[in-house]
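Tutorial handout. Part one gives the primary structure; part two gives the three-dimensional structure as C-alpha cells.
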Amino acid sequence: MSFAGELKNDSIDIWNNILDHVFIQEISNDTLPKEKFIVYLLQDRIFLKEFCILLDKGMRMTPDKNIKKWFMELIQDITKIEMKMQDELLELLRYTDYDTTVASLPNVTTLDYIYDTRKLSTEPIKLYELISFIAPCPWTYYEIANKISKENRIKDIITKRWIEFYCSDESKQQVEHITHMLNDISKDLTQNEKSVMKGYFKMACRNELDFWNMAHNTKLTRIS
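Part two.
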C-alpha cells in the first residue's frame, strides 16, 4: 500500500462517514432541500478564501518549481473557476429568496476549520505537514462526485453541474498529483514524521465531516 493509501486507511472510518453522509445521500437521491445546498455553498466560499491563503504559504515555502507551480495552479482554479461555479449555482438557486443572514457569515463549524487552517498558515510548519492537511479536501470531493456520477441518478441541473465539476478530469488529475506528492514527500521521513502527517490528515478529515454536518443541520427561512 502506498503511503497516501496509508493516510486514507488510517482515517477510513471518518472517510466513509463523509462519503455516506446524509447530505451526500440526499444529493445522490435528488432530495436535498435547496436551502441546505445554499448554506453549504455560502459557507464553503468563506472557507475557500482561507484555504487559498494556506496554499499560498505552501507555494512560497517550497523551492521545488513543480510543487510551486501546482500550488499556484490550484489557487487559480479555486479563485477563478471553482468560486465562479459556486456563484453561478447560487444564482440558479435564487438564494436571495431566502434569509441568508445566518449563512453569509462564518458559523462555528466553519470558524473551527478556519482556525486550524490559519494555525498552519501562521505557525512554522513543514511542507509535508501542510500537504497532509490540504489533501482530504480535494480528495474526498472527487470521490464523492465520482461515486454519485457512477450512480447516474441525478436529474437536477444544479447539483449535476456541481457533481460534474468535482469529478472532472481536472479534479481527478489534482487528486492523482496530490497523492503522488504525499507518497514522494514521505519517502525519507521517519516514522514519527509520518505519524505527524497522519495526524494532520485526520484533523482535516474531521473538519470535512463536521462541515457536512453543519451544512445539513443549518436552516434557512424563505423571505415572505
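Part three, for discussion. The chain has a mean pLDDT of 94. The longest helix spans residues 34-61.
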